[in-house]
Amino acid sequence: MMMTFSVFPSPKVSDTVVEPYNATLYAHQLVENADECMVLDNEALYDICFRTLKLTTPTCGLNHLISATMSGVTCSLRFPGKLNSDLRNLAVNLIPFPLLHFFMVGFAPLTSRGSQNYISLTVPELTQQMWDAKNMMCAADPCHGRYLTASTMFRGKMSTKESSVCEIPPRGLRMSSTFVGNLTSIQEMFRRVSEQFTAMFRGNAFFHWNTGEGMDEIEFTEAESNMNDLVAEYQQYQDATVEEDGEYERRRRRRTTSPKMFRKFVVNLNGIGEYHLQDLLAYTMVCGYLCLFNFARPGLCFGHTN
Predict the structure, then answer these.
(1) pLDDT at 102
(2) Three-class SS of residue 264?
(3) Is the residue at 165 inside a domain?
(4) Which helix (H) or strand (E) holds 279?
(5) Domain, as residue range, for 26
(6) Which of 156, 248, 298, 301 makes an SS bond possible with 76, Cβ 3.0 to 4.6 Å?
(7) Is residue 194 part of a domain?
(8) What is the mean pLDDT of the chain?
(9) Which bin fits 144, alpha (ψ -120 to 50), beta or left (φ > 0)?
(10) How many domains does the chain have?
(11) Cα–Cα distance list, 263 to 139, 245, 259, 284, 285 (Å)
(12) Structure confidence by residue, pLDDT tens digits, 70-91
């Protein structure tokens, strides 16, 4: 199994004109060879650094965002616990169709470095931030698409007698949450790159740079076709409608919980033991998919389910 954390370009934050070529060519390889791909978008990363972290010249701040997200996503792979999840389990639970293995990731809390020690967040606040488009590492609005699958990982306080790893949390970060979701709205980013690639490829702009290095035109054609197929696949499931079949419709309604019910559930969960329950699991249905929440001490693993 191969998991990648892939950074995609944006013309808003870069002046390198050949980036659409590079992005389309490596997206072609990700479709063919990668099993799970966490998509990171330069446009979203810069926007978080400017607006949320209040950085005037983002440099190391970009790497800080990526490293925090990578740490949260891979926590259950690196630390022991009752709910360990390997790459195969993650793929089984988050990939409904083979081609759709590109995930949007988010992280919370995101605050400026100077105010980290003065902010205390609750689980409902973390949850609200985690599902916010402003905390996503990809410049695509989740409200414009559908959630196919999702997984959330929470890190926070619990009893010390049950744990012997990572007793000291990161400085200024006593509690955090990480979001991994398979959303159809990620096609916005792929379509943006595809349109830029097509405009340059049709005009043979800077094409000689690549042919001079031994590449062939057929490689570009295949990469463009793969990118268009990926966008069409996401669009297909975004436009899919549910047949008005009685039994299926009743089952679908039983699996669906409104956002208000979800927020009420989290608030009520907050009042039980105040985050000190060991391996506290809560299953809830949100928009038709199942999420598994595990409140644990920093460093312990987290669970995923479909």
Answers:
(1) 95
(2) helix
(3) yes
(4) none
(5) 3-188
(6) 301
(7) no
(8) 74
(9) alpha
(10) 1
(11) 25, 30, 6, 11, 12
(12) 988 888 787 765 566 788 888 8
